[in-house]
């Protein structure tokens, strides 16, 4: 058996390159930066030429006008929303005050009727029932209109059922001449003043805080004017550049866009500023007047209850008289402040003073030992009686409350409409100006194609 000889492999030549070696990137450089550098160079090159510069002008003009439109629309939307919230929250606040006033007035009517003894006057009984029904309906409506107030208002509604039950017991015993009737009436009044009214006062404070926050959200719109001025500067500079480069004095599209931004920007700013100013006027005017009259009315009815309790207690009611003095002094101070601020006239304050002066006659009779005469004067219904004076005060306060609430609602609604219209007007102007600027610059750009 023979074998075929095999020649041994030759050793590699010293210094020779290995076979089949490949090196696609001998320098080891990353191509990405090079590509980016090339793109930037191309962009710089394009901007050195007129078509590239025209495209840049086109982008600047369109963006400037769109920003004005969007800023104006956002300002109008925010302002309109704040005014709408202020209107709703102020209505809620006034409504809660109305419920409080109805409850205090009902309590004053019940205690006043108790002084008559026996079967109470039909007119006063009807007034009490109407006030209780008004309070109950108001609690149900207000609980559903604002979830933040529903828990406390529901608690008051539950306490109202207990209160009216105690008043009915007091009436039943009073008709039969049982002294325990005064205890039931005192217990009912305690529930009203220690549970129901504090809960309503807490709701009033919460609502007042929300209203204050709403009014704070209605800010001046001068920053919209600032944005419009910046856009105008961009448009004017671009037109000046176009005039030098194209040797045309006027670019119609840019000129009309500039005029549109100028006119609508100024008009929109004036409208937004006017709405903001009107909102602050409402806050310091009819809204403040409504709160002052409502609080004075509530304090007056509270004092009316104290007047009756002072007589019911027969010689041991000094604490109720002290409460009467404190409540009427607080009411007078609120009305005087509103009058000095120019938001209320002196009608309600004068009526309150007249009633307080006649109350002094009741106290003079009682303190002089003539309790029967004091009760007779306190329960009389003649034209010159204390009850007639109190009715005049109540009517004047109610008129102030209704007028202030209506004006607050109408003025805020009008201001909100103005803000919304200004926002849409600025948005439309921005869009139209952007289209005009695009057409104006595009016409010059087409000349280079």
UniProtKB/TrEMBL annotation:
Protein name: Chemotaxis methyl-accepting receptor HlyB-like 4HB MCP domain-containing protein
Biased composition (Low complexity): 25-42
Transmembrane segments: 54-73, 221-242, 249-272, 421-441
Domain of life of the native organism: Bacteria
Keywords noted in UniProt: Membrane, Transmembrane, Transmembrane helix
Region listing for Disordered, in residue ranges: 1-42
């Amino acid at each position: 058996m023979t074998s075929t000889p095999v020649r041994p492999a030759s050793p590699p030549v010293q210094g020779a390159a290995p076979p089949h070696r490949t090196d696609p990137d001998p320098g080891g450089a990353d191509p990405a930066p090079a590509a980016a550098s090339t793109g930037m160079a191309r962009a710089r090159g394009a901007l050195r030429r007129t078509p590239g510069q025209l495209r840049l002008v086109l982008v600047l003009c369109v963006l400037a006008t769109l920003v004005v439109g969007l800023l104006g629309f956002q300002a109008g939307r925010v302002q309109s929303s704040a005014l709408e919230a202020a209107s709703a929250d102020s209505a809620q606040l006034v409504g809660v005050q109305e419920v409080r006033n109805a409850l205090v007035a009902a309590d004053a009517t019940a205690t006043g009727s108790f002084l008559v003894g026996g079967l109470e006057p039909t007119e006063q009984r009807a007034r009490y029932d109407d006030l209780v029904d008004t309070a109950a309906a108001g609690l149900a409506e207000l609980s559903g209109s604002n979830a933040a107030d529903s828990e406390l208002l529901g608690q008051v509604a539950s306490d109202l059922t207990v209160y009216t039950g105690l008043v009915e017991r007091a009436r039943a015993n009073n008709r039969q001449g049982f002294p325990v009737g005064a205890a039931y009436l005192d217990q009912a009044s305690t529930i009203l003043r220690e549970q129901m009214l504090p809960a309503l006062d807490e709701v009033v404070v919460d609502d007042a805080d929300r209203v204050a926050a709403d009014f704070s959200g209605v800010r001046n719109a001068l920053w919209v004017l600032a944005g419009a001025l910046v856009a105008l500067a961009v448009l004017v500079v671009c037109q000046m550049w176009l005039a030098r480069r194209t040797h045309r004095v006027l670019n119609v599209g840019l000129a009309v866009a500039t005029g549109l931004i100028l006119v609508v920007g100024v008009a929109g700013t004036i409208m937004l500023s006017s709405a903001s100013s009107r909102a602050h006027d409402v806050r310091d005017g009819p809204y403040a007047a409504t709160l002052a009259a409502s609080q004075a009315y509530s304090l007056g009815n509270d004092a009316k209850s104290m007047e009756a309790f002072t007589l019911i207690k027969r010689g041991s009611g000094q604490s109720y008289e002290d409460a009467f003095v404190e409540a009427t002094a607080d009411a007078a101070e609120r009305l005087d402040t509103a009058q000095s601020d120019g938001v209320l006239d002196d009608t309600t304050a004068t009526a309150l003073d007249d009633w307080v002066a006649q109350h002094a006659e009741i106290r003079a009779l009682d303190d002089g030992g003539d309790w029967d005469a004091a009760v007779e004067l306190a329960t009389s219904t003649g034209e010159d009686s204390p009850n007639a004076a109190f009715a005049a005060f109540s009517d004047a306060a109610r008129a102030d409350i209704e007028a202030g609430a209506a004006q607050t609602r109408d003025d805020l609604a009008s201001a909100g409409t103005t803000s919304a219209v200004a926002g849409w007007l600025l948005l439309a102007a921005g869009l139209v100006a952007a289209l005009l600027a695009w057409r104006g610059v595009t016409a010059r750009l087409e000349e280079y194609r």
